Structure formats: C-alpha cells, structure tokens
TrEMBL record:
InterPro entries registered for this protein in UniProt: FAD/NAD-bd_sf (IPR036188), GMC_OxRdtase (IPR012132), GMC_OxRdtase_N (IPR000172), GMC_OxRtase_C (IPR007867)
PROSITE patterns from the UniProt entry: GMC_OXRED_1, GMC_OXRED_2
Name of the protein this chain belongs to: Glucose-methanol-choline oxidoreductase N-terminal domain-containing protein
Positions annotated to bind FAD: V168
Length: 447
C-alpha cells in the first residue's frame, strides 16, 4: 500500500508537490515483511509512559518484556550471554546479527567512540550508544515476518480461514457491538458475521480509515460525509511517524573496496550471489548490516531515554545512507477521510516539526552528524560533502564547516526530511476515561 502525506513547508521539498510517500505491507504478515527488518523494541520508558501517564494498565516494560522473550529466539550467543534477562532463545521468531558487515563499519565505531558513544545492546537495559543491528532474519538468510512464522508452518488450521486479495470495506454494528464485516474480492461484495468479536488489525493507516468508514470517529468529521455516527471517538488524531533526514556521504575512491554492494546487478558474476542465498543461505543478500545508534540532543535532559536515532546503511559500492531520526517528538499529525470510497487512501497531515522544540532537536541532531563527517576520523575517508547550494539552499561563506551553517542546515532539513515508515498512534490506547483514547488497554474500542 502506498500513501502520500499532504504538502507542508517544513519537510519533503525534494518530492513532487511536496508530497512525502509512505507505505505499508500488502501481503500476509503485513508490514512485518517490509523495511530493514530491525529487531528494535524501543525504549523501556516509552512503555512505562503508556502505563503510568496514559493509563494503559498491563503495558509497562515489566509487563511486556516476558512476552518479548517468549517469542524471541536470539541466535547471537554474545548478546544472550551479556543480557540473558532481556532475551529469549526458545521462541518461534529467529533473531540474527549480520555476519558480513562492511569492513568500513569499523571506522564508524571508532568515530562513535571518539564522540563518547559506547557499544550497547539496544534491546537491553541501556539503549544509549551504538550497535550492529539485530534482525528479523533467520539463520537461513530469509525474513522472519508474522506470516512466515505463524502462518506458513500451519497454513490450514481448523480455526483459521484466510481470504487473500480481499479488502474490508465496513464493520457492521448492532448498536455498539460489532457483529461482522463487509469485504470485496475481485469486485464482488461479501458479508461475514462474527460469533465472538471483530478484530481490526489493519495498521496505523487503514485501521482508522476502516473505523471512520464504519461510523467510529469524530462526530463532526463523520457528519461531513453523511456517515451515521456509531461512536464519537478521536480516531485518526494523534498520528505519529518519525521524521527522518537522509545524508549520503561518498567515500574516496581508494576506500571503495571496504564496501559491499547490497543490490548487485544481475550479470553472470552477480548471479553467483543469488545462488549463495538460495542454495547456501549465505552472501550479500542474506543479511542487511546496519549500524543503529541512540543519542540525545542538548535539549534532552533524560539521557537514558534518547531522543535521536541514527541508522547507517550500506547503499551502493561507493556510499552509505545515514538516516537521522527523531525518536521522540511532540508534533502530532491527523488522518481524515477524503471520500467514503474505501478504495481511496485517507488524507494524512504528518505535521512534522510543527512543534518548535522538534525543530530545534532535528537541527541539533543533523548538525551533530555533519560534525562527525567533518571533524572526526571519517573526514579522512570521505569526499568533500557537497555545499548546501547544490540543492538550492544557502551556503555560509563565513563558516569553515557545514555543521556551523545554521541557515543551510535548516534548508537541508526541509529538503531532505521524509517519513520514517513507522506510523503509529492513530487509534490511541489508554484509560477509558481519557478523552483522547480510542481503545482501552485490552484493545477494545472504547465505549
């Protein structure tokens, strides 16, 4: 599924019409089959905030950690040995650590160390620091999504019937009780009724859209489409997605050999790489080495709850992609219907950097990255970073380094910010007495 955010002057200026794209998984397993396959639970403080600030009883980190451990089968003995209370080894989902990281990653580790970072287990007790990614990729070099782990081993259980290429268009209600759904397959409409309950698990984009089409949403918005109101709830509010800024530093030619091309062209020689994956479960395509680092901006007072994530990915045989992401931010977006046609995507305002503190934090975070490339040992290996004027942004002739050019950095951020493919929050969970909640801690629609 592909979505486009509404234009905003604060971000996405590189895209046609300023419309930043996003996506979700259109397959069995949904979005668990997409993205970098990073095994990243998030910071424990986020779960505790759900429980203690928003009233989501049963969702503190102490509550959810046993569940995480139960389904985890971590195959990295070093990680399990160092933090055994945080990892499981007997669950159905295999977790691996890449074993073919580019040799150039060692220079990143040295640069991080020089800036005061320490290697850490980002799924352990202390998230601040850097690490080679842990992945939802099994020891055979294949993705571990919910479809492959829970459906493929038992594709025809007695209590499950899967309808593929189907789109649910409406939830049916009897009063305030959901009793079934309408869906379409090949332009033919069907109705199915529930014996017990209807579970909506369509993700942060389509769950709110389906609820609103079915009469669950803000009364004012539903009335504007003449949709009968079943429940007046803030569906689509509180939408969140990590704002991310991309940099692509290019190595000097003599260091190209320290990179591995992750997307080989399919000539005769490169077909050998495919055979490594499918016959030996090895090689470039069997893993996705990425460095993850969590740090804090100067405004973040709680250094044990970092507000910035760096991800460094191999992207070609000459360059890396360095992603700068606000892990915590205050700006909130909103999702609305653009039509009563379920085939049309919703209207989504991302609203990144709407909050002034978010703007200050992303400026600080991006400046720190430019500093790393201009003032640490990494500068010895890189071609000169292009001036801001190369993308139509102002340069600062009076500044020696790009990280000192505030106006150039601000424009660079506006031009290069995208959405992080991590949508959340559009059906907020919390205590039922809160006016901003859509579902209770048992994930039941609040009524």
């Amino acid at each position: 599924w592909v979505y486009y955010y509404e234009p905003n002057k604060n971000y996405g200026l590189q895209f046609a019409g300023g419309r930043v794209p996003d996506q979700s998984g259109k397959t069995l397993g949904g979005s668990s089959a997409l993205n970098v396959m990073a095994f990243n639970r998030g910071n424990s403080r986020g779960y505790d905030e759900w429980a203690h600030k928003y009233g989501a009883d049963g969702w503190s980190y102490r509550d959810v950690l046993p569940v995480f451990r139960e389904w985890e089968n971590n195959t990295d003995p070093r990680i399990v040995y160092n933090e055994p209370e945080y990892h499981g080894t007997h669950g159905p989902i295999q977790i691996t650590t890449p074993n073919n990281a580019p040799t150039f990653f060692q220079n990143y580790y040295k640069a991080f160390n020089s800036l005061g970072y320490k290697e850490t287990d980002i799924n352990g007790p202390n998230q601040a620091g850097y690490a080679l990614i842990q992945s939802f990729i099994n020891t055979a070099g294949l993705k571990e999504g919910t479809g492959t782990v829970f459906i493929d081993p038992n594709p025809s259980p007695d209590n499950l019937h899967i309808v593929c290429k189907a789109l649910v268009t409406k939830i049916l209600f009897n009063g305030l009780t959901a009793i079934g759904v309408e869906f379409i397959v090949n332009d033919i409409s069907y109705t199915v009724y529930a014996n017990r309950e209807v579970i909506v698990s369509a993700g942060a984009f389509q769950s709110p859209q389906l609820l609103m089409l079915s009469g669950v949403g803000t009364k004012q918005h539903l009335n504007s489409f003449n949709i009968p109101v079943v429940l007046d709830l803030p569906v689509g509010q509180n939408f969140q997605n990590h704002p991310e800024v991309f940099l692509n530093p290019i190595l000097k030619q003599q260091y190209f050999s320290q990179l591995i091309n992750p997307t080989p062209e399919l000539n005769v020689e490169q077909l050998k790489i495919l055979s490594q994956l499918y016959f030996k479960h090895q090689g470039t395509l069997s893993t996705f080495p990425t460095i993850i680092s969590y740090t804090s901006t100067h405004l973040n007072r709680d250094k044990q709850w970092p507000n910035v994530e760096y991800a460094i990915l191999r992207s070609s045989n000459i360059t890396f992609t360095h992603v700068v992401s606000l892990a915590r931010f205050k700006s909130r977006g909103v999702m609305k219907l653009q039509s009563t046609d379920p085939l049309l995507p919703p209207l989504i305002d991302l609203n990144s950097y709407l909050n002034a503190e978010d703007k200050a934090n992303i400026l600080d975070a991006v400046s720190q990255v430019f500093y790393m490339y201009e003032r640490t040992l990494l500068a010895n290996y890189l071609q000169q970073l292009p001036p801001f004027s190369s993308i139509g942004c102002p340069d600062c002739p009076d500044k020696q380094y790009l990280y000192e050019c505030i106006e150039g950095l601000k424009c660079f951020i506006q031009y290069n910010t995208i959405a992080g493919n991590h949508p959340a929050g559009s059906c907020r969970m919390g205590a039922i007495e809160r006016p901003d909640v859509v579902v209770d801690p048992q994930l039941r629609v609040n009524h």
